[in-house]
Amino acid sequence: MHLRIAHLYPKRMSIYGDHGNILTLVRRSRWRHIAASVDEIEVGQKFDSKRYDLIFFGGGQDQEQDTVAADLKKKAGAIREAVGNGAAVLAVCGGYQLLGNYYQPAEGDRLEGVGIFDAHTEAGPKRLIGNVVVEPDVLDLPKRPLVGFENHSGLTFLGEDANPLGKLKTGFGNNGRDNTEGTVQGKAIGTYLHGSLLPKNPHLADWLLKQALGRRYKNARLGELEDAFELVANEQAVERFS
Ligand code: GLN
After folding, report:
1. Is the pLDDT of residue 62 over 90?
2. In the chain, pLDDT over 90 holds for what percent of residues?
3. Of the residues 15, 59, 88, 117, which has the fewest C-beta atoms closer than 10 A?
4. Is the pTM of this model over 0.85?
5. Angle of CA points 6, 114, 197, to nearest 5°
């Protein structure tokens, strides 16, 4: 099997360790003798709607989001088509916001989103910063808590078609009001969890790999990995921050 990953705007949208998610997806594939390749797609570069099994979109500062949002308008149709063709998605913070319907920053015009998530974001009055623990509620994802770090001013509100990634045990999550964090819509996950997210949440990494490989390999099965260190990191974070 060969996992093909598209990494959107890594030079502009990969803060707070988000690139570690790519390293995790590639390593957890290669440890299972699954080939994995990553195409970095920057401003002005074409997005091939038929090529990718997984799309990763990290977080960034408002000023970078302005530039990226303008470029996303040219890629939006191809990204929607890729998701419609069965690509999985992991979008973190700013990337999550821009794959929603729109993001209204504190200053300047509203940024139109790609519309992968039925969600919209409005800049809030203060930054929501700190450790986060989430009780996930996603089909086929083990109930082990998800842990990470958040730093955003955006407040994200989910529409009817977007289910929360889970309920908060600790942290602000989507908006600090409705006790939800992130969203899951089909094979697409949006979240505020930086850190990187996936190294300490191997169950989520494998969920994404299964969804992504399922696009082209109908009976894709993932062998077990020795996750002792990853699970200790997860358990210690849950213990410290719950
Ligand atoms: N600029 C956005 C916000 O503050 C996203 C920040 C981020 O990606 N960490 O909400």
Report:
1. no
2. 97
3. 15
4. yes
5. 50
